[in-house]
Amino acid sequence: MATGLGAALLDQWRSGHLTNQRVEDRGYYLGSGPGPITEEALPLEVATGRNLFGTVAAELASGKIVAWCRGRMELGARALGARSILADARVPGMQSRLNLAVKFREGFRPFAPLILEERAAEWFDIRGPSRYMQFVEPLREDRRHATDGNSADMRVRLDEPRSEVNSVVHVDYTARLQTIERSTHPDMHILLSEFERITGVPILINTSFNVAGEPIVRTAGEAFECFMNTDVDLLVLNDRLFRNPMQKTREEKLKWVERFKTLA
Predict the structure, then answer these.
(1) CB 169, CB 175: distance < 8 Å
(2) 123 in the Ramachandran plot: left (φ > 0), alpha (ψ -120 to 50) or beta?
(3) Homologous superfamily (CATH) for 28-263
């Protein structure tokens, strides 16, 4: 969808129809909203008072995994913080935990960081904004931890403490980051700011809200179904927060995931 829109805009520009006009690049969240919350979700609601963002940031800082389905959906194939699964990149083993217990895929798969745009240069050698996860950038030298780096075992290399945010930095000290600018994505900017206030780190893991083989969730119903069939701890649906009762067995969850492999 995003590629098709870009091709149409390029054609209009080449045809002279966009002379002296600028395409607004802050309008990337053009999809539909989640819609109504299912009745099944209501008994699992968590009281947050008036501070949803502060509550969620504190849960993330305590090691919880949070699914985020709020506002209009991203345009395109990447999760850009509207239909995302979020976690604390500082937690040891979080990369494997997300891959194996949430995404149901190989444990070595990498994840991308969300980072406050105004803090990005303090962590990465960046060339400029990367608001749509376009660029791979190296971690700053002063943020790196020395490692052996010579092991033939990829699992060992992945688990070596390369940085404070190990789960979003590859073995070569690079990351495909998304910089969060206040006006482009105000919700995620608030959440990251709250997380930084608690932890001192302006970074969260971001991966698409789905399991292997499943499209990114779109509606509240799809979000709740995926949430209940994974080990995601908490779900944000618009302005409300829900806690996973973790009632389903591993076998039940694997059976649910298997249908997407069949469809693929």
Answers:
(1) yes
(2) alpha
(3) Carbamoyltransferase, C-terminal domain (3.90.870.20)
Domain boundaries, the chain: 28-263
Position 193 pLDDT exceeds 70:
yes
CA dihedral 209, 242, 37, 198 (to 10 degrees): -70
Per-residue pLDDT band for 96 (boundaries 50, 70, 90) equals confident
Cβ neighbours of 235 (radius 10 Å): 26
Strands 66-69 and 83-87, sheet pairing: antiparallel
d(CA 150, CA 6): 43
User: What pTM, to 2 d.p., does this model score?
Assistant: 0.89
Q: Which of the given ranges, 13-27, 68-82, 149-163, 219-233, has the highest pLDDT on average? A: 219-233
**Measuring CA to CA, how many Å separate 46 from each of 189, 237, 260?**
22, 11, 30
Q: Is the pLDDT of residue 10 over 70?
A: yes
